[in-house]
Amino acid sequence: xxxxxxxxxxxxxxxxxxxxxxxxxxxxxxxxxxxxxxxxxxxxxxxxxxxxxxxxxxxxxxxxxxxxxxxxxxxxxxxxxxxxxxxxxxxxxxxxxxxxxxxxxxxxxxxxxxxxxxxxxxxxxxxxxxxxxxxxxxxxxxxxxxxxxxxxxxxxxxxxxxxxxxxxxxxxxxxxxxxxxxxxxxxxxxxxxxxxxxxxxxxxxxx
Length: 207
Description:
The chain is α/β, with parallel strands linked by helices. The protein has one domain: Alpha-Beta Complex (DHBP synthase). Helices cover about 25% and strands about 25% of the residues. Strands 1, 2, 3, 4, 5, 6, 7, 8, 9, 10 and 11 form an eleven-stranded mixed sheet that branches. The longest helix is centred in the N-terminal third of the chain and has 12 residues, at about 15-25. The model has no long low-confidence stretch (mean pLDDT about 95).
C-alpha cells in the first residue's frame, strides 16, 4: 500500500522530503511532481525498481530512460556534451526538456539504450523534484507517468494512488503540475533532432 505525502509545491517540508528520500534509498518506487507532469522515480542503482517501472508502463528494451538532475554539473557527470550543446542546454535549463545524450560510464548499463548507449537527461524547474535530488545527492532515475495505451500523463495524485497503490511505495501530492510531457531533443548526432514536442518551446533550438 503506497504512502501518500502532501508536500507544499513551493516550500517543500524538509521532514517529508527526508522521509521520501529514505523510501527511495531503500528501493522504493515513488511518484513525484515535475515542471511538466508527474513522474515515476527510483534510485539510480536499483534494478528491481527499474523493472517495476518497465512493468507499470509496459516499456520495451529500446526505451530511453531519464536521469533527473539537480544542475548542469551533475548532467555533465553522466553525459557527454561539447561546448555548443552545453550552451544550448544551459539556455533552456531548468525547464520542461529532456535531452538525449551519449552516456558516460557513470550511468548503469541497464539504463542505457541498448544499441545507442544513450540516456535522457533533464533538470526540472520544480521545487519538490529539486528538493528530492538535493537530499538524495545524486540523480533520480525517472520516467513520465504515462500508462500503456494513454497519450497523456496522469495528473491527479488521488487517481494515481487509487490506480497504482499496490505497485508503489509513495505518491507525492504536489498539486497540479500539467498535462504535457517534456519536449525531447536528441543531441547525439551532428544536428539536433526533435524526438517529441511537449511543453518546452523549441524556438531557441537550431532544429
